[in-house]
Request: fold
Amino acid sequence: MKNQLFDEQFNFVSEKDKEFIIAFNDVMISAGYDNNGIQPYVVFGKYKIEYYKPGTKTKKYIARIYFRDDGIVLRLYFSDIDKHSEYIENAPDYIKQPFVDDSHGCKMPDCKGVITNGKFRYRKTYSISGTPYIKCAEQSFMYYNMDAKNAESYTEPLIKFYPTRKRQNQ
Reply:
């Protein structure tokens, strides 16, 4: 992937963003996660890298990096946030921010989420430090302007939420 990032088609990606992608990818791979390399994409950017736990029956993506003309976006996916609320409460501000800010709040009854088993499928509901939050799952937990020196910090919540066998056996 490192060599692929330096192909001419990725000249629009800044050196700072390339450094973050390489650092984040290295940490994810060493933690036991995998990806399919850089793939074309059209919704949130020109290209994407999708990370998942290998060895599962169906790939559940836990992180994506979107390549946009104006920079990259790291999107992390979380389930059972309440189960890990103490971790998030104590995380660095730049990790905690998308959990507690006003971005992507679900505006019921305007939410267009699909109801499955009595719950909105595209909503994330949780509490951090006693404050309840409702977010639209399709747009939540996005990070911008990341620094390569903090790449490991972005993987720590994923390791808490989605431990790999490799990590569990260490």
